[in-house]
Amino acid sequence: MTDRGRLVGERYRLLRRVGSGAQGTVWRGLDEAAGRDVAVRRPRLP
Hints:
Elements: E1 7-8, E2 12-20, E3 24-31, E4 36-43
């Protein structure tokens, strides 16, 4: 997927897609400011 490695909101690095559904996609990410793993939800736009 092309979003892997993308920086979202100048803070969250997308590492691995966890799952997706009708509402959007959830990624395992890295909060680069805090150095912690996070879940990042990318909503699907209509």
